[in-house]
Amino acid sequence: MTMKLGRRAFVGAAAIGMLVGIAGPALAQDKIVLRMSTPASETDFRSQGLATTFADAVSEFAEYQPHYNDSLFKQGTELVAIARGNLEMSLTSAQELAKLIPEWSIFTAGYLMRDAEHQRKVFEGDIGKEMYQLAEDKLGVKLLSVMYFGTRQLNLRGDKRINTPADMEGIKLRMPGTDAWQFLGRALGANPTPMAFTEVYTGLQTGTIDGQDNPLPTDKDRKFYEVTDQIILTSHLVDMNFLAFSKEVWDGLTPDQQQTVQDAANTASREITEKILANEAELVDFFREQGLEVYTPDVDAFRERAQKMYLESDFSKDWPEGLLERINAVQ
Ligand code: KDO
Predict the structure, then answer these.
(1) Label partner for 298 (CA 20 to 30 A): which of 30, 55, 165, 323?
(2) How far is CA 61 from CA 90, 147, 250, 253, 261, in A?
(3) How many Cβ atoms from other residues are within 10 Å of residue 282's Cβ?
């Protein structure tokens, strides 16, 4: 695949490149300290999987030190922090990567990935290798593994029945604060508004926003069901996270240690994926028990509008040639 780097990517990469290597990894009792920053809570499946499986596997030579709820770095600033040598690990997303590497925006498109299995095969195959290499070359960030984070669904206040994107008109939908996320909100027919993940519960409670989108396990973990009335199963994004790791720290590990870190990331990511899939399957009943309306709209109408908008968007101009077809062909 020929990767064409746009001007934006070069400027961003050069600026970040200049900052790499300012500080070396911290050591605690002769162990490398791996600080991981995330907006997710401590009880989130991803947090739990990393704090057990990953942390245990690397414990001989590294101390895994998680920081939850945006307490160390703000959502969306973690990748630059890693590139600058100020952070060792994060759970990153295609949307955050796309902000720095435009080619990555292909993975922010609604209705692209079919399911968790499709996602795993794409990222554990050649496409994943190429996209991970791009992140390493341009940012000095190693993407160790992909984990399924759940399929994103609409979650709204009020009882307005939503069947097609036209019904979303005027709905103030909180989406995370990057262009890629805001575009997805518009592709769903909504009026998107940026807000940090940690502020969403209060935003729903006070009515600053009419709704939000997240996978069902996240809606449960953050108790969004307490302050909303309905979940519309649009399944608009089969979402994923990547375990991001400082290349500088990685390069300082012995080959054995690197293998241990890689194996730990793979095992933890697979376990997390399985747990999220199992939990997702149980949650429709749970939300109904909490009194929410849960229903499937005209998903084809949402898919058609979103796919058309993405193909006609500026994002698609940065997609590597042939990549869309290659992703679709992965069985
Ligand atoms: C969110 O802000 O809605 C989001 O789900 C976006 C994801 O990419 C990811 O950052 C996630 O938040 C955090 O990990 C918190 O769950």
Answers:
(1) 323
(2) 19, 24, 13, 9, 10
(3) 11
Indicate whether 224 belongs to any domain: yes
Give tens-digit pLDDT for 32-53: 999 999 999 999 999 999 999 9
Question: pTM (2 decimals)?
Answer: 0.91
| Residue span of the structural domain in which 128 resides | 26-329
Flag whether 289 is in a domain: yes
For residue 322, being part of any structural domain is answered with yes
Q: How confident is the model at residue 96 (pLDDT cuts 50, 70, 90)?
A: very high
197 in any annotated domain:
yes
pLDDT at 112: 98
What's the gap in Å between 241 CA and the centre of ligand 1? 9
pLDDT at 74 > cutoff 90: yes
The number of domains in the chain is: 1
How much of the chain, in percent, has pLDDT values that exceed 90? 91
Contact in structure between 15 and 242 (CB atoms under 8 Å): no
Q: Ligand 1, residue 93: give the atom nearest the CA.
A: 8
Residue identified by tokens 């994923």 is 240
Residue located nearest, by CA, to atom 15 of ligand 1: 40
Distance 244 CA to ligand 1 centre (A): 15
